[in-house]
């Protein structure tokens, strides 16, 4: 009887162990399957991540981004520069890609890239020292132009209407956005209701390259403001030391720009303006009268001097309410570093020379001598 019971227990134990082994095998198999799935998913995700990191940042982008590659830059430095400027997605993968493909020996210099470039296109450009993107349009905006004249140039060169350009640069909501974006140079001063055009004077004179067939008006305006920001920023402290704000400095520089054609003339004209302001004399500069009139004419007539406008410096004893044109950097420099003189008067002769005088009597003598 005890033997039967013992045999039954043995069989029961054997069955139990067999069932337990099957359960363990199932668990192990399940775990292995889960691990395989996890590894497969991880591998696929890793592959997709690496693949994505090697692809262009934005294949549809036409944005042009200028980067400077210094002499002697290592691959790490170049990768960091490209990543910081949004040319590549990941600097580490870019370096690994270079090593795997045995690439190097890049050329220093200034490049224009777009986020649509592949790794190979970027590498080829860096090896040959060639700028990848070629501009579709290259447009020069001269110094001393008004926003209205600038709008005319873009309307002539691009597929935009002058009226549309002027509508954008006079849109208050857009101007408020620009003030926030370019707070270092733009202020609420330009929103004064008596200012004819808020961005007058701030659309910098330069040559602009556009890499799209039809750039937006906003992108054009902001390219020009970027240039103004780059030019004005190094002088911000000097502007403050001179007792001016940026709006006053830009206004002053626009007057100097319209009255002078050389660095020496600009410095002397600037000194005359400062001397007049210090003695509460009106600046009496004809370009402000023409701007107040809103028209172009060869001569300013006596009757024109009576135009009632915050721009007319024959009627006010301060700077005009805002700039009357864009300016060159040399005019800004002359504004901040005028010549030392006691001149209060100047006039232009028919040859473009400027004659200065300390007294009204001397000024009249110059007029009789040099003006026909």
UniProtKB/TrEMBL annotation:
It is found in: Cell membrane. GO terms for molecular function: lytic endotransglycosylase activity. GO terms for cellular component: plasma membrane. It catalyses: a peptidoglycan chain = a peptidoglycan chain with N-acetyl-1,6-anhydromuramyl-[peptide] at the reducing end + a peptidoglycan chain with N-acetylglucosamine at the non-reducing end. The chain crosses the membrane at residues 27-50. The record marks 259 as: Important for catalytic activity. The keyword Transmembrane applies. Pfam families: YceG (PF02618). Its EC number is 4.2.2.29. Functions as a peptidoglycan terminase that cleaves nascent peptidoglycan strands endolytically to terminate their elongation. Belongs to the transglycosylase MltG family. This is Endolytic murein transglycosylase. It comes from Oceanobacillus arenosus. The lineage of its organism: Bacteria, Bacillati, Bacillota, Bacilli, Bacillales.
């Amino acid at each position: 009887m005890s033997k039967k019971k013992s045999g039954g227990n043995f069989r029961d134990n054997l069955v139990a162990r067999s069932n337990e082994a099957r359960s363990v095998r199932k668990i192990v198999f399940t775990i292995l399957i889960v691990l395989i799935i996890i590894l497969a998913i991880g591998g696929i995700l890793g592959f997709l991540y690496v693949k994505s990191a090697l692809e262009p940042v934005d294949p549809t982008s036409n944005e042009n981004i200028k980067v400077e590659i210094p002499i002697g830059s290592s691959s790490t430095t170049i990768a960091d520069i490209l990543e910081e400027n949004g040319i590549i997605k990941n600097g580490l993968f870019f370096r690994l890609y270079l090593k795997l493909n045995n690439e190097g020996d890049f050329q220093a210099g200034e490049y224009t890239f777009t986020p649509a470039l592949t790794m190979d296109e970027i590498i080829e450009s860096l090896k040959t020292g060639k700028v990848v993107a070629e501009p579709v349009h290259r447009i020069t905006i001269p110094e001393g132009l008004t926003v209205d004249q600038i709008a005319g140039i873009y309307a002539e060169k691009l597929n935009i209407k002058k009226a549309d350009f002027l509508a954008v640069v006079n849109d208050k909501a857009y101007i408020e956005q620009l003030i926030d974006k370019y707070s270092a140079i733009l202020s609420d001063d330009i929103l004064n209701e008596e200012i004819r055009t808020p961005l007058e004077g701030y659309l910098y004179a330069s040559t602009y390259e556009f890499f799209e067939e039809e750039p937006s008006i906003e992108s054009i305006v902001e390219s020009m403001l970027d240039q103004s920001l780059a030019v004005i920023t190094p002088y911000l402290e000097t502007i403050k030391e001179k007792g001016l704000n940026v709006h006053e400095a830009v206004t002053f520089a626009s007057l100097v720009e319209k009255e002078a054609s050389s660095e020496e003339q600009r410095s002397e004209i600037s000194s005359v303006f400062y001397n007049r302001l210090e003695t509460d004399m009106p600046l009496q500069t004809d370009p402000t009268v023409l701007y107040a009139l809103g028209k172009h004419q060869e001569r300013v007539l006596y009757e024109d001097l009576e135009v009632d406008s915050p721009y007319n410096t024959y009627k006010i004893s301060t700077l005009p309410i805002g700039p009357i044109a864009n300016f060159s950097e040399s005019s800004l420099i002359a504004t901040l570093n005028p010549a030392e003189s006691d001149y209060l008067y100047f006039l232009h002769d028919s040859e473009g020379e400027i004659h200065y005088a300390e007294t009204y009597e001397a000024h009249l003598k110059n007029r009789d001598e040099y003006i026909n």
